[in-house]
Design goal:
The protein has 2 domains: 38 residues, no CATH class; 58 residues. 66% of the residues lie in helices and 0% in strands. It is built from 3 helices and no strands. It is flat, with a radius of gyration of 20 Å.
Length: 97
């Protein structure tokens, strides 16, 4: 995994730069997909639900600075609890024990 530009980036022509960034993008996508595949099915569903509801929220908020779809807050609550239940943030629950 390369961080930032390669040492001789300035000496590359446009075609070489495009190939370089395409390879970097493909490598990143592969790593992300492999990591996602290692999650449990419930964790994957939680991530996909959160991604969907955040997209809905951003669209509604950007258009009118209001949440006009009554399903959006409900979906946000479902996404929150999916993360809470499937990503092991149990420390907060054990403080009073």
């Amino acid at each position: 995994m390369t961080r930032g530009r390669p040492k001789h980036y300035e000496n590359m022509n446009q075609a070489e730069r495009e190939v370089y960034w395409q390879r970097e993008r493909e490598a990143r996508n592969t790593r992300e997909q492999e990591a996602f595949n290692m999650l449990t099915e419930d964790q994957q569903k939680a991530i996909l639900l959160a991604k969907e509801v955040l997209a809905d929220f951003v669209q509604e908020w950007t258009e009118s600075f209001d949440i006009y779809n009554p399903e959006t807050p409900r979906k946000m609550q479902q996404a929150f609890w999916a993360f809470q239940n499937h990503f092991g943030t149990r420390e907060a629950h054990n403080e009073n024990d």
